[in-house]
Specification:
Elements lengths: L2 E3 L5 H8 L4 E5 L2 H10 L5 E5 L14 E3 L5 H6 L3
Parallel strand pairs: 1-2, 1-4, 2-3
Length: 80
């Protein structure tokens, strides 16, 4: 199960649920992504520049999203 995280404070929850799958953290601020990466050194996590309105992921590429509820882009990237 791959998980998309649009709120960095939910990264710990995502990692607890991810098992061996990938976790994608998206934020529009490089400094925030760098901070999260320093605090959470985990090979399952990918840090990407973007925002909830323009997600840098392919269609139907994630199984679950944390944060960003109600964002139209989630319908595009979620598998279900």
């Amino acid at each position: 199960m791959s998980i998309l995280v649009l709120d960095g404070s939910l990264l710990t929850e995502a990692l607890a649920d991810a098992g061996d799958e990938d976790v994608y953290v998206i934020d529009q601020h490089a400094a925030e992504l760098e901070r999260l990466e320093r605090e959470t050194a985990d090979p399952r996590v990918f840090y990407l520049i973007g925002n909830a309105e323009i997600l840098p992921l392919p269609d139907r590429s994630v199984d679950r999203a944390l944060g960003g509820e109600g964002t139209p882009e989630l319908g595009r990237v979620l598998r279900s």
